[in-house]
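User: New here, please read:
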Amino acid sequence: MRNQQATQLLSELSHPGRVAVHWPPCDVPEQPIEDIIPSNFLADEAPKLPELTEGEVVRHYTNLSTKNMSVDTHYYPLGSCTMKYNPKRNERLASLPGIVDLHPYQDQSTIQGMLQLLYELQGIFSEISGLPACSLQPAAGAHGELTALMAAAKYFKSIGEDRKVVLAPDSSHGTNPASAQMAGFKAVSIKSDPNGGVDMDDFRKKLTDDIAVLMITNPSTLGLFEKNMREIADAVHEKGGLIYLDGANMNAILGIARPGDFGADMMHYNPHKTFSGPHGGGGPGAGPICVTEKLKPFLPSPIVEKDGDRYKLDFDRPDSIGRVRSFFGNTGVLVRAYCYILSHGPEGLREVSENAVLNANYLLSKVKHFLPVPRGERCMHEFVASASELKKERGITAMDIGKRLLDYGFHAPTVYFPLTIPEAIMIEPTETESKETLDAFVQTLFKITEEDAELLHEAPHTTPISRPNEVQAARSPCLRADFCSS
C-alpha cells in the first residue's frame, strides 16, 4: 500500500507537451512505418508515454535512488547471500573500452584478449575448487546447478545407467530439489541431526543403488562445516553416485579447503557472492561450474581452449549437453570476478575467508546472549539465531525484528530460512565490515528485542511503504499502476 510519502510515478508527473530532447531533422529518406513493419504488428495508437523534461526525469530517478538500501549505503547482514562491499576498481576495469565494446559475433581472431581472460578464469576456478574442468556459461547459481545435473544425467546415460534419485539435506537451498526435478531426477530429502549436520542414519537408509547425485552445501546454510563430509562422499561414490557441492558458501573456505579434495565431483560458484560481482536487482549474474575430468566431455559448448599461443572457442564436443546460455556467458560479471581474484591473489583470498569467519564468530558470541543460536557454539561465515522464545513469550517474530531493523538503517538478515530452525534469523557479516559496524548492529538488535511488541508489529515506521500484505501481493500482484489502489 502506498502512503503519502510515496514517490509519484512518472505518469503522474507527466504534462502534455513537455519533452526532454529535440531530435534533429531526419537526414535519410522517410518511409511510412507500414513499409518497415507489417500493419498487423502495429498498435492502433501510439503508447501513452510520460511527457517530461530531462531535469524531471533525472530528479525522479535520483530521488528514487535515495530510498534504496544497498551495500554502498547500509550494512547488509543477509545470511546465505554474502552481500559484501563490491570494490569500485573492478567496476572500472570491467568497463574498459576493450571489454565493453566487444561484440560476440566478432571473429575469434579479434577477441584473443577476452578469450585469454576467460581461459585463465576457467583455470583459476578449477584451481580454487580442486576440480579440473570448468564451464563459464551458466547465468546464475541455480542455472549452474541445473547445468551440472544435466551433465551428470548425460554421463550416466553414456555408461548405460538409468539413475533417478537426487538426495539433498533438509537445510539445503530450495534451488537444489528444484534443479534436480528440472533435470529429470527425483529429489529426496535427508534429515538433519540435532547438531545441524546430515543425519547419518537417515542418509544411509536413503542411499540406495539408484542414487545419481547427492547435492550438499558445505559449509551448510547453518554456517557449519559438515564433519562427516568425507564419509558421506565415500559412501555415495561406492554406490556409483556423484557429489554435487552447492558453492553458495565458498566465501568461508577460499584458499583453506577445496571441494574436489573433500569429495565433490561438481560444483557451482556464485561470483556475485564470492568474487564481488553486483548482487540482486534482477541484473545479469553468473554461475560457472567445475567438474571432474570424467564429466568434462558433457559440459556445455563451447569452452575456451588454448591452441599453441592462440585461444579458441571449442565447439567440437560431441558429448556436450549443448548451449545453456547465449554466447559465452555473462562476461561482464566474470571479468569482475577475474579482477577481484587477481587483486587478492592466493593469500588474499584465504584472508578473505579467514576474516569472514572471524567476523561471523564475533557476532555469534554477542548475539547468542539474547537470541539463541540453536546449532553450534562456533560457525563458519554465517550463523542462524532464533526468535522462537521471543515469539512464545512476547509475540515478537523474526519478521518483526527484520522489519524494525530498517528503521535503524540496517538491512534485515535473512529470516525463516533454513526451515530447520523455527523463527530463523540468518546472519552473515562478511569480511568487509568493521568491528564498529558489527558492534552497532548488535546493540541495535538487542535494543529491538527489548522494545514494545506492538511497535514492532507495525514496523518499519520510517520507510515509504510500511508492511504490505505479502500474501496478497504474491497472489494478486499489481502489475500496472492504472489498476492499483492509492
User: Anything to note?
Assistant: The CA atoms of residues 164 and 184 lie 7 Å apart.
